[in-house]
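hey
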């Protein structure tokens, strides 16, 4: 475990090639140097930074944490001096271990014991104190925009599902298997660009061949066995994973 700025610095001093980072205690965790700061990445997602004043700043939101939440929940305390707990979909609490006098489960049962994760949340690594605690965000729903989102999403998914049932993806799957789309050219669906593509597709009820080809590129497995039905399941998972970001695009949450 790396629990202080000095420990992060000493650990990184061992790196033969600092640009490649160093593996931390658990699979998928890596430490990188960025100037005089030390960055922690988990499976390609930056979760936070050790800062020179011996603080740790989380740099991810609940939405960004969603894809690695299970890893964080199981291995956070092996790599950093924090405990991590899911409290709702794409909403997580975190606290320094110094603040947890009982079991983590009991500690997180009381919402005010620990802050929700947000980009910029900081902890003093000497005392464990949270330096910029924010009350839980209560989101107000715009009912008209919510209806618009639900109707658009339902209509688009129905259209894609019909396409899957009649095997509309089959030719695209065969083409992708024969000539794989390079990794660098595939859409990263959890990025702003990826969410924008999903939003426009749902809003415009778009099922164009080019769009479907993007989905197939991400869903086609190297081991084979990809079908139109499995591509549809992949699309459903993308919508579920990016649900909050998509609802924000539709204006479901007032003030955002």
């Amino acid at each position: 475990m790396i629990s202080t700025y000095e420990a992060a610095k000493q650990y990184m001093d061992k790196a033969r090639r600092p640009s490649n980072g160093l593996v931390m205690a658990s699979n998928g965790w890596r430490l990188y140097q960025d100037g005089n700061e030390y960055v922690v990445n988990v499976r390609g997602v930056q979760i936070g930074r050790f800062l020179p004043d011996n603080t740790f700043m989380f740099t991810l939101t609940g939405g960004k944490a969603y894809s690695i939440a299970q890893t964080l929940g199981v291995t956070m305390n092996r790599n950093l001096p924090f405990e991590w707990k899911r409290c709702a979909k794409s909403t997580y609490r975190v606290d320094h271990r110094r603040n947890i006098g009982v079991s983590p489960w009991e500690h997180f049962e009381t919402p005010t014991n620990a802050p929700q994760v947000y980009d910029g949340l900081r902890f003093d690594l000497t005392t464990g104190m949270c330096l910029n605690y924010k009350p839980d965000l209560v989101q107000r729903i715009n009912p008209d925009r919510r209806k618009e989102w639900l109707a658009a999403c339902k209509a688009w998914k129905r259209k894609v599902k019909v396409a899957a049932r009649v095997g509309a993806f089959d030719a695209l799957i065969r083409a992708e298997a024969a000539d794989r789309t390079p990794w660098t050219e595939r859409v990263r669906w959890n990025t702003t660009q990826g969410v924008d593509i999903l939003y426009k597709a749902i809003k415009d009820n778009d099922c164009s061949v080019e769009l479907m080809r993007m989905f197939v590129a991400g869903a086609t497995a190297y081991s084979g066995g990809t079908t139109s039905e499995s591509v549809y399941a992949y699309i459903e998972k993308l919508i579920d994973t990016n649900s909050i970001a998509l609802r924000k695009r539709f204006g479901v949450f007032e003030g955002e």
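Residues 5-124 form one domain. The mean pLDDT is 91.
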